[in-house]
Design brief:
alpha/beta; about 35% helix; two-stranded antiparallel ribbon
C-alpha cells in the first residue's frame, strides 16, 4: 500500500463522497492525531494532516476503512478491504483503539439510548451542557473536555451503559480494558526469545581516550549478570576480558519499531525520515508542535500496545531549549522536562518496550553564552538514580526500569537559528550519514566516531557555531540498528 503524501485532489474527492455522519466520525477518529489543530471540517482536517506529513495513503485508507466506505477504498485509493486489514495487522495505526471503540459503541446506540446517556451525565456535565439532539460522539467529546472520560478512564461510561441496560456494550468496554491491562502478559512469547538477564547493582568506570580530541572522557558501564556466563556492556575503546561473552539485542521485527520525529525548527525532518525508514523503522514525523502538544504526542506513543510486536523505539527531538527543558514553538513557554520524556518510556511506564532499546536523539538550541567550555564533548554513563528500582518480567529475568535507554543530547547556541543561512544540525546530519553508511556497526561505537566529527567541526568554527554533544546510556547489550 502506498505510504506517500495525499494530494489535495484525492482529499477533495473523498470529502465529496462522505455524508455528514461519516464526516463526524472521521473528525472524531482524528482528534488525537490533530490535538493542536482546530479543523472546522473534514477537508481542512485532512489537508492540515497532509501538510504536516501525517496523512499517507495508508492512513487515509485506514480512515475510510473505519467509517466502512470500502467503495471509496476501491474507487479512489485503488485498494480493498483485505489489503487495508493486512496493513493494519502489521503496522501502527493512525486511529487509537479507544477512538475505534467509541465509534463502534456509538453505532450500536439508538436515539433513545443516546438521549438517556445525555440525561445520566447531566450531574457531571451540567444541565444543558450537551444538547439533547447531539450524538453519542458529541457526548464523548464533551466528557473528554471535562476529563471525565479517556482511553484509560471509562468507569463513568460503563456505569451509564449499565443504567440503560446495555450490558453488551459495557462488556465490550471491559474487554477493551482487559486487553490494555494484558499487555504485560503478551510479552511472554517475545521474552522467550531474549536472554534471561538481571541487572547487577554496581557501576564500572573506565576511561576512553579519543585520539582526535586528545582529551579523556569518562564512560560508565552498567554490568549485567547472566547464569552460567557473565556478560557486560561494551563501550568503544574499552577492553573486555576474553571470558566475557557479548550479547546483542534482537533486531528482527518488521518494522524494527516506531520512529517519532518531532521537529520544531523544520530543517531536519526530510532526511531523518528517509534515514530511519531505510533502516526499517515506521516513521511518524511531527512538524512545529507546541510544547504541550509534544507531551501529548509522546504520551500517546508511550501507551501504544503495538510496541509489543517490535524490537526497538526511536525518538528524534529538535527544538529550542531553555532552563526548564524543551520549548517547542512557544518562545515564552517554560518548556517541558527531558527527564519527563525519558520517564514515559521506562520499563514501569511502558511495559511493552521493557527489555528493548529505546533511543533518543535530541538537538537543543539554547542560550549558551560562556557556560560551556569551547569544544568540550561529554560521554556519560547511565544515570541510575535508584538501583533498587527493578521491574520483574516473565520468567526469571529482572530488568531495571531505566535499562536499555540510549540518550544522545546535543546542545547548540540558539543564535545559529537567527542567521539567514541557518541550516540543518551538524550533529543530526552526521548522525544520519553514519547510520546510512555504517548500519552494521554497534551504535555506541558509531556514536563515538560521531563525537569525533562534531569535535572536528568545533575546531574550525567560532564559539557560537559549536555543538556540545553528550551521551548517556543504559544499554545492556550490543545494539546494531539493522535486522540481524
Amino acid at each position: 500500500m502506498a505510504l506517500g503524501p495525499v494530494s489535495a485532489e484525492v482529499i477533495h474527492q473523498v470529502e465529496e463522497c462522505l455524508d455528514e455522519e461519516e464526516k463526524e466520525m472521521m473528525l472524531f477518529l482524528c482528534r488525537d492525531v490533530a490535538e493542536n489543530l482546530a479543523p472546522p471540517n473534514v477537508r481542512d482536517l485532512l489537508g492540515s494532516l497532509s501538510e504536516r506529513g501525517l496523512l499517507s495513503f495508508a492512513a487515509l485508507a485506514e480512515l475510510l476503512y473505519r467509517v466502512r466506505r470500502f467503495d471509496l477504498l476501491k474507487r479512489i485509493l485503488k485498494t480493498d478491504k483485505a489489503t487495508v486489514e493486512a496493513h493494519l495487522s502489521r503496522n501502527p495505526h493512525l486511529v487509537s483503539d479507544y477512538r475505534v471503540l467509541m465509534m463502534e459503541i456509538g453505532e450500536s446506540l439508538d436515539k433513545s439510548d443516546v438521549s438517556s446517556l445525555v440525561f445520566l451525565t447531566r450531574d457531571y456535565t451540567g444541565r444543558g451542557k450537551v444538547a439533547k439532539d447531539k450524538s453519542f460522539l458529541d457526548l464523548v467529546v464533551e466528557l473528554e473536555k471535562l476529563s471525565l472520560i479517556a482511553s484509560d478512564q471509562l468507569t463513568l461510561l460503563e456505569k451509564c451503559l449499565k443504567n440503560i441496560h446495555r450490558m453488551d456494550l459495557k462488556t465490550k468496554i471491559q474487554k477493551y480494558t482487559q486487553a490494555g491491562q494484558g499487555t504485560e502478559s503478551n510479552m511472554n512469547s517475545l521474552q522467550a526469545s531474549l536472554p534471561n538477564l538481571s541487572i547487577k547493582e554496581s557501576l564500572y568506570n573506565s576511561r576512553l581516550q579519543n585520539g582526535r580530541s586528545k582529551e579523556q572522557r569518562f564512560v560508565e558501564h552498567l554490568g549485567i549478570q547472566r547464569k552460567p556466563v557473565k556478560t557486560s556492556i561494551q563501550e568503544s575503546g574499552v577492553f573486555l576480558p576474553p571470558h566475557i561473552h557479548e550479547e546483542s539485542y534482537r533486531m528482527q521485527s518488521k518494522p524494527l519499531g516506531i520512529c517519532v520525529i518531532i521537529d520544531c525548527i523544520g530543517n531536519d525532518t526530510a532526511y531523518l525520515k528517509e534515514t530511519f525508514a531505510s533502516l526499517g523503522y515506521y516513521v511518524q514525523p511531527f512538524l512545529f508542535p507546541h510544547a504541550k502538544d509534544i507531551t501529548h504526542i509522546l504520551r500517546r506513543f508511550a501507551r501504544l500496545h503495538q510496541h509489543q510486536y517490535y524490537d526497538s523505539f526511536v525518538c528524534v527531538l529538535v527544538s529550542r531549549g531553555g532552563s526548564q527543558g524543551m520549548m517547542g514553538v512557544d518562545p515564552a513557554h517554560p518548556g517541558f522536562s527531558l527527564d519527563h520524556v525519558k520517564s514515559m518510556f521506562m520499563g514501569d511506564m511502558c511495559p511493552s518496550l521493557r527489555g528493548k532499546p529505546k533511543l533518543f536523539f535530541i538537538q537543543s538550541y539554547e542560550v549558551l553564552g560562556g557556560q560551556m567550555e569551547d569544544g568540550s564533548l561529554e560521554v556519560d554513563g547511565p544515570a541510575m538514580k535508584n538501583m533498587d528500582s527493578k521491574i520483574p518480567c516473565p520468567g526469571s529475568c529482572t530488568i531495571h526500569r531505566e535499562a536499555d535507554v540510549f540518550w544522545s543530547l546535543c546542545r547548540a547556541d540558539v543564535s545559529q537559528l537567527e542567521r539567514p543561512s541557518s541550516s540543518s544540525s551538524v550533529y543530526l546530519q552526521n548522525l544520519s550519514q553514519q547510520l546510512e553508511r555504517e548500519r552494521r556497526r554497534p551504535l555506541v561505537d558509531l556514536h563515538v566516531e560521531l563525537m569525533d566529527k562534531v569535535y572536528a567541526w568545533n575546531s574550525r568554527v567560532s564559539p557560537k557555531e559549536k555543538y556540545y554533544l553528550s551521551l548517556q546510556h543504559t544499554l545492556r547489550k550490543k545494539l546494531i540498528l539493522s535486522r540481524t
